[in-house]
Design a protein that fits this description.
The protein is of the alpha+beta class. The protein folds into four domains: 192 residues, tricorn interacting facor f3 domain (Immunoglobulin-like), CATH 2.60.40; 135 residues, Orthogonal Bundle (Neutral Protease, domain 2), CATH 1.10.390.10; 157 residues, Chondroitinase Ac, Chain A, domain 3 (Sandwich); 78 residues, Immunoglobulin-like, CATH 2.60.40. The chain is 17% helix and 40% strand. Strand 40 and strand 41 form a beta hairpin.
Length: 786
């Protein structure tokens, strides 16, 4: 009966899986009908003919279906001399980079076909200048992915192949070059043959199956910096092939290589390849299996690009060991590898470094991703022109972070290790990943993938209220979900709630809920003074937050929260957590004539443990010029001054927004707006009456390049230029940005009288610009009735 009950549970569970499913591609692939088992690549590279390839590739092919009459291979912009099958000349056509090889007899699944293609010519590099086969300044190498072409796979840039993410083969490389050169390919070097004619032939053998785009060759006068890593499955040779002058730099830049490997093995399981290899190239980086193309400029003796070689190395788990089934699944390759940039930091530098790195990345995603990718995109089924864009890499890494937080470390890492075992040296789709991890963990991940992978946008979680009941340590916590650019609320949400009191006691539990609102009763072993949602930043929702333990006076920066703390007094340790919320705040409960509008896109929450005597100023960042900051065209148009910018506060969600005392930086368009007495609660920028901070902050008197007088006036005024030694243009704008007048002020006459065209009474702006368009001064102009 036990087996039967398990089968029933599994059957019901499978029925509950989300309706999203995938096929490998809507396009017919060569790998649908044939399987290439092995490639022998024999190439002369830039020896026999300058800057050219010549030679042949033999592919050992078996049909996947019976009665195939044609074999299709791909090769980019090279000349094909002949084709043989099982050593017999065969007809072929070569059109649009596809080699069509008709068979004289239909082939079946029991047959083996040895197809040999002889070819030569100048290899191709894509229009972006990245993917392709590069021959320049004595260095030759391939990069197996094209950013600009669709499909992106570029194994075909140097050998005829089935070039997709599915077909995998073994490789032998026989590469002939000038005797002064050294050849590095994926796999293990078998021998070097001196041909006696000023050339050498290098034989490299690759002992694991990989897709064609991960095959590689590099040629230069390389020197190897070698080592050994004691891996989980035994000793693994390591080698970084560099320019002769860069060996010491390589030792310094890769000093933590073994620690990075140890970190990835700890989290993901054993490194399953025959060696660890990098080769210096002019461009890169590219995760060619065991032979990572890595920019020579990054081998500079510092650790500044350590994250980059960690990213590429981690592809030997995500991308090389398991490979996305289609370009639409690319987040499996690149999102997970980008997450590993943070994970290696956790292993090598500690959890704080991990959190700091991911927080910076999340801010980048929330602030810039939709701009750089021209909209909010879902991770799966990404448009091909954004396959290698910000969404796939950066948001993909954030989704992996959230998946870890959602499942917890034990379930997350355990299931991923099993997935890597199950799909090793194979391709995997997004739906297959979802279903495998769901079945292995027992947690139905349909809702998680539905929201975070199959749809655009972000969740946002906040505590709406906390109410005690029955005794002081029992509390109902009410939570709310908001959305940032998402079509519908996420379901099956799991969020941590952390309670603390003034004695720094801490209690953490989770709340599970669907939709917009959730509620849970908590029994807490003490009376809490604060409740914090996702305090340890396990979920990458639409917040960037962190907490600091404050022991000294001075400035404390929260860069990803766009906030600074200026501590004036602290008698005992304080904990200050600042949450920057990248969603619309609650609106005003009651109309307020002093508040015209509040920011529709962001607000702050400040909370923590504030001991007696703690006093600090709070500085909130604003920017009305950059498209990457949220006041731009949402709160104030970019061409207007910020004289009417105000700071609002409320203690909690039951309170209403009200203006608090503040001072704004002496800058017209960006800076900090400061309140002198930080309180726990929520803060937001708004627009109200001008000049409420007590400063003439928009038009500072010091170093003014332009003076306007009289002001106010009836449209008849004088402009005086100070320290301006060029001709300038004065443009007059309405408060809504419409140009109403424009005139030249010559440098030889720095005091200019002007009478405007007919202008209605009101407030205007005069913007002074050089003839090249650069703005050098702005002044307010007030026109009154005559």
């Amino acid at each position: 009966m036990k087996k039967l009950s398990v089968l029933i549970v599994v059957y019901v569970f499978i029925l509950s899986i989300n309706v999203y499913s995938q096929t490998s591609s809507s396009k017919a692939l060569a790998s649908d009908s044939i399987d290439v088992l092995h490639y022998d690549i024999h190439l002369d590279i830039a020896h026999k003919f300058s800057n050219q390839l010549c030679g042949f590739t033999e592919a050992k092919i078996v049909p996947k279906v019976n009665s195939i009459n044609n074999i299709t291979l791909e090769l980019l912009y090279l000349t094909i001399d002949s084709v043989t099958i099982n050593n017999t000349n065969n007809a072929f056509s070569y059109i649009n980079n596809k080699i069509q090889i008709p068979l004289t007899l239909a082939a079946n699944i029991v047959d083996t076909l040895n197809v040999k293609v002889y070819y030569q010519g100048t290899p191709h590099v894509e229009s972006y200048g990245w993917g392709g086969f590069h021959i320049s300044s004595g260095m030759s190498y391939n990069l197996g992915i094209s950013f600009g072409d669709d499909p992106h796979n570029y194994g075909k840039c140097f050998f005829p192949c089935v070039d997709d993410f599915i077909d995998r083969a073994f490789y032998d490389y026989y590469i002939t070059v000038d005797s002064s050169k050294y050849v590095v390919c994926g796999g293990t070097l078998i021998n070097i043959l001196n041909n006696g004619d000023g050339s050498k032939t290098f034989h490299w053998k690759f002992n694991n199956s990989i897709p064609a785009y991960l095959a590689s060759v590099a040629v230069y006068n390389y020197v190897a910096v070698k080592g050994v890593y004691q891996g989980m499955n035994g000793n693994i040779p390591t080698a970084v092939y560099v320019l002769p002058a860069d060996t010491n730099k390589a030792k310094a830049s890769f000093i933590n290589l073994n620690s990075v490997l140890q970190t990835f093995e700890h989290f993901w399981g054993p490194y399953r390849w025959e060696r660890v290899g990098y080769v210096a190239t002019t461009l890169g980086a590219m995760e060619h299996a065991t032979n990572i193309a890595y920019p020579a400029a990054s081998i500079d003796g510092t650790l500044s690009d350590e994250y980059l070689y960690a990213h590429e190395l981690s592809h030997h788990w995500f991308g090389d060991l398991i490979t996305c089934s289609t370009a639409e699944d690319m987040w499996i390759n690149e999102g997970w590898a980008t997450y590993n940039e943070a994970l290696y930091k956790e292993g090598v530098y500690g959890k704080k470094a991990y959190k700091d790195y991911l927080r910076t990345k999340l801010k980048r995603v929330l602030q810039k991703c939709h701009i750089e990718d021209a909209g909010y995109l879902a991770l799966y089924d990404i448009p091909t022109n954004y396959t290698y864009g910000e969404t796939v890499y950066q948001k993909g890494s954030c989704v992996v972070q959230s998946l870890r937080g959602y499942l917890g470390d034990s379930l997350f890492f355990g299931s991923v290790k099993q997935m890597l075992n199950q799909y090793a040296y194979n391709n995997i789709s997004t739906s297959e990943m979802r279903d495998f991890m769901s079945n292995h963990t027992g947690v139905n991940l349909s809702d998680f993938f539905d929201f975070h992978v199959y749809h655009p946008g972000f969740t946002h979680f906040s505590i709406d209220s906390m109410i005690s009941f029955s005794n002081p340590a029992n509390y109902y916590v009410y939570v709310r979900q908001k959305l940032k650019a998402a079509p519908a609320f996420a379901n099956s949400n799991i969020v941590e709630v952390t309670f603390m009191n003034n004695n720094w006691q801490k209690f953490t539990d989770t709340i599970h809920f669907n939709g917009e609102f959730g509620k849970k009763a908590f029994q807490i072993p003490f009376v809490p003074t604060v409740a914090m949602l996702d305090m340890e930043e396990k979920l990458a929702d639409a917040t960037t937050d962190s907490y600091e333990i404050i022991k000294n006076t001075g400035i404390v920066d929260y860069p990803e929260s766009l906030f600074q703390l200026d501590v004036q007094q602290v008698n005992d340790s304080a904990l200050v957590r600042v949450v920057h919320n990248w969603v619309q705040p609650d609106g005003l409960k009651s109309p307020n004539p002093d508040i015209k509008r509040i920011s529709p896109v962001r607000y702050w929450l400040v909370q923590g443990i504030f001991p007696n005597g703690f006093n600090a100023k709070a500085k909130f960042y604003y920017n009305c010029q950059s498209t990457f900051y949220l006041e731009y065209q949402t709160l104030l148009p970019s061409y207007l001054s910020t004289d009417s910018l105000i700071l609002l506060y409320r203690k909690n969600t039951a309170d209403d927004w009200h203006i608090i005392n503040f001072v704004k930086d002496d800058d017209q368009f960006s800076g900090y707006i400061t309140t002198n007495n930080l309180q726990q609660g929520e803060y937001v920028l708004g627009v109200g009456k001008p000049f409420q901070s007590g400063l003439n902050e928009v038009f500072p008197k010091k170093n003014k390049k332009m003076e306007v007088f009289p002001n106010p006036n009836a449209g008849d005024f004088t402009i005086k230029l100070n320290d301006v030694n060029e001709d300038v243009i004065a443009n007059i704008y309405t408060q809504t940005g419409s140009l109403v007048d424009s005139f030249l002020i010559a440098k030889k006459n720095p005091i200019a009288h002007h009478k405007t065209k007919e202008m209605n009474p009101g407030n205007y702006l005069i913007k002074l610009s050089l003839l090249n368009g650069n703005n050098i001064a702005t002044e307010q102009l007030v026109v009154v009735k005559k």
